[in-house]
Predict the structure of DUF2285 domain-containing protein.
Amino acid sequence: MAELTPAVTDPLIWSDQVTPYDQQHFITYARLLDAEAEHADWHDVARIVLRLDPESNPDGARRCWQAHLARAKWIVTTGVKQMVEQSEETD
């Protein structure tokens, strides 16, 4: 189940399947995509959405933000389709 502010892992472990981590972070992913659509500064997004400190660790915070944003994009393109197909198989 998605949580409002779950802790993020760094590095993000990539999978070709939707993972429990993804399911827990659906809201995080939506917030990242919304922030990108609004052209929000990545520093602010890392601080507010990912709860990271980009001032004390700018490279790490940026890397974590980029990885989670890439995962969010994967979820809305490939991951959702995968979940629908799996759901249809169980019906």
Notes: Helices lie at 20-24, 26-37, 42-48, 58-90. Residues 20-90 form one domain.
